[in-house]
Automatic annotation (TrEMBL), chain A:
UniProt organism field: Streptomyces subrutilus
Residues covered by region (Disordered): 117-136
InterPro entries given in the database record: Znf_SWIM (IPR007527)
Pfam families attached to this UniProt entry: SWIM
Protein name (record): SWIM zinc finger family protein
Molecular function as annotated in GO: zinc ion binding
Biased composition (Low complexity): 117-129
Top-rank taxon: Bacteria
Taxonomic lineage of the native organism: Bacteria, Bacillati, Actinomycetota, Actinomycetes, Kitasatosporales
Automatic annotation (TrEMBL), chain B:
Taxonomic lineage from the root: Bacteria, Bacillati, Actinomycetota, Actinomycetes, Kitasatosporales
Residue spans of biased composition, Low complexity class: 52-61
Protein name: Uncharacterized protein
Residue ranges, annotated region (Disordered): 49-75
Species of the source: Streptomyces subrutilus
Regions of compositional bias (Pro residues) in chain numbering: 62-73
Pfam families tied to this protein: DUF5691 (PF18944)
Amino acid sequence: MTEQGVRWTAEQVLALAPDAASRKAGGRLGGAGPWSQIGGSASGSVWGLCKGSGSTPYRTVVDLAGPAYKCSCPSRKFPCKHALGLLLLWSAEGVGEPGEAPDWAAQWLAERTAKAARPAAAAGGPADAEGARRRAERRAARIGAGVTELEQRLSDLLRAGLAGQERAGHAGWEETAARMVDAQAPGLAGRVRELGTIPSCGPGWPARMLEEAALLHLLDRAWLGVEALPDGLAATVRSRVGLPASGEGEAVRDRWLVLAQYDSVSPDGRLTTRRIWLRGLGSGRPAMVLDFGPPGRPPGLALPVGLVLEAEVRFRPGSAGLRGDLGERFAAAAPCTEVPPGVSTGAALEAYGAALREDPWLESWPVVLGPVVPVPGELGWQLADAQGAYALPVPLTGAGSRSRGGLWQLAALSGGGPVTVFGECGHRGFTPLTAWRPDSIEPVPLV
Amino acid sequence: MEKPDEGYGEWEELVGAALLGTDRRRGAGPAGSPESLLDAAAVHAVRRRAGLRPATAAARPGPAPRDPRPQPPEAARRRLAQLLAGRAGGSGGSGRGSAPDLTELLPQWLATAGRHGYRAPEALVPALLDAARARTDLRPEALALAGTRGLWLARLNPEWRFALRGGAGGAGELPEVTDTAGVERLWQEGLFAERVALLGAVRAHEPAAAQRLLATTWTTERAEDRLMFLDSLRQGLSDADEPFLEAALDDRSRNVRATAAELLSALTRSALAGRMAGRALACVGPHGVTPPAECDAGMLRDGVVERPPAGRGERAWWLGQLVESAPLSCWRERFGGLDAAQIVALPVAAGEGWAEELHAAWCRAAVRQRDARWSRALLGPPSASPAAGPGTASLAERAKLLETLPDGERAQWVAEFIRAHGLSEAFQLLGVCVVPWAGALGRAVVEALESAREAGSYPWSFSGVMGLAERCLDPAEAGLLEALTASAQDPPDASPGAAAYWSEAFQRLAATLRLRATMLAELTPA
């Protein structure tokens, strides 16, 4: 099967819509009614002519690998409703056997291929190096001031005792978070905001709050002594504080299996973060690719679960070597033909523990677990090793937890038997994201 | 997860100190200054996380029974996922757009998959159970498809308890009908719904055995249960049921008596039908109508209700009940060999004001006895205005009469009705036609929609019929609609913009039909 044959779901297509109006308009064009000369290529593109109000139909073509869109309509929205409608039609009914693109589509597709082959121009020149260094120093100084202030705040907290926090509300922490934003340390701001929410999140909160305050303190101290840290840890500290990664780590070419993709929205609703989990089938190495969407717009990068991309991933320094960016792709994506091997619950926690050596602030580590049996429970769910006495709990609330719908889907898939599950394994437990039945290579995303 | 034993106590102490605050605990405990407390806590936190060990597993659920049925082909599986997601309102197919309304395709998908003998893809069983919970009309088919995996899940999640009741889809829950001991035990100990299902199953296998089963406990059943059991005999009613029903005419409960009488009157050869015929023939004849003067004990025993509802005369009320319970075949001789159509057309009783009462009773009798000849006569020609028809002007009652006609004739009748009277009155009549609609009926509907467009009204005045057409038109008729999907100019006296809305509505209809065709093709086993 070719990538053109691996259709996306309507939800995946609609997630690309820039706004609600486009989603609606695209949905209307998702029937075959206005379309003609629809086709697709084996290398992963679809095209078609869409009848509009004028006499000439619009020419719409989508490169599924990007995805990237081209349409002759005057809309400034991106992708436009025609591209969405075409994708919806393709997702619902397919476009038949792969064929040759008509000239107007072929030309644009060829341009894209040519552009992809050209090496990316080096960003920024040495001319500005001096200016960049001065800016970086200024920012480091501001962060330093912020860190010092935050340490003061933490000291005050411990001096007065956590007991008062339940009544204090989180307004004070919001204010401190705002100060961290001013200090250009968004990573610290996020952690501070989290800290403020702990007293209202149920029994055991004092221990959790102490833990989080201590880890925040650890980050502060690490920042103040960052020059003395080994390179990897220093990079981790910088990215945890919120500085963009400086320089690039290694580039790894492999066949990357898309294990999961999900979105989360920032507490203020202004930023959508899409998290895509990859695993190198050759190297076994995990990679996390992030993409962001501004208010009301989903991130542009969409990779259906189960596809394998022959591509280069450029890893960023620090953060336990997880964060990567998708680089050059060498072939059209293809569906995966194997289930990645799973590990026991104990090995999963060991992997998380080992990763903490590189990044002590790491919440979780991507793990393929299996064979395991999902165990639903009134008080909480578990994933139990198919053999033996051990299990991992599934967090039901708070950061990292997923919908219960996904859990029931997992239970349905297992029917009391063993399954392989990909998810995030951390100190709160294991959050399942994708599952395989024992007799199938088809990954099922748990929505 | 279990915390590492090492240093656990120390962590508790740290939390205690943190709760209290270092100001109040100066010098005591493991941590003096806030900084050293945080330092120690940080070491603990990282060490605790790095040293986590798995918890002890709780009791694992027992395995779900194997479902031997095949899964639908891949394209069909994806379609079902889409239909179920659309149900949740994800893609927003409602409104006046040209996108098909996916929600209404779900019942059809389920029914077709059921006919092919598929099981649901495991991952979709939860969504299927949610759909069945929200829409009782989908329940039997959704649960049948979910099968044993669905029941297994329903035992784990209280929200799906409904799936365990009623035995619908609970394949394998009833004993084999030949397993006498099993049948006997469930009949004695089962829940009411299980017993009804059991009775139906035994009855389908051997009617006499069902009666024997019913007779074993009949006198000890509660009145409302007796009523429900009796009502379940409606399915597959036959002359063999007469003795049992005749005995039920002396039941303690009035509702049981009335139901028994109603069922007996549907058995046109029964003694009750004969008694009713005698009474009815005494009242109605070629020379006019003389309603009964009193409601005697015999009539009461045969289920005639003595007190009329408010606003109805006693004698007309009794007359109606006698005529509706008499076999229609008795009238031919009484009217000197005339057939149903001729009898219905007679001016008999018109002058005395009994005609309406008499014709309404004949309509009820035709429906109850499923008599196509009388139904045809009472409906009259489809081109005649309903108000002028011989039987009834009520569309609901006419729909019931239509149901007694053979499928083809029913479609033909409704097609002609639509040609003569348009769509605005046809909705209920269309509802009783077999899906997909026969060619002539489909064409009549499309032509009527086209005329409505030409008349310049807005399409949403016909949204009911449009929706029905999306579900019921034969996908093969999509070609008919192609010409109509083109945007046309508004006719001079049309409502503004109507033409554009119509072309959009036709586009959606055509798209839905194509989608239905694709959907059905996807379900065909490879």
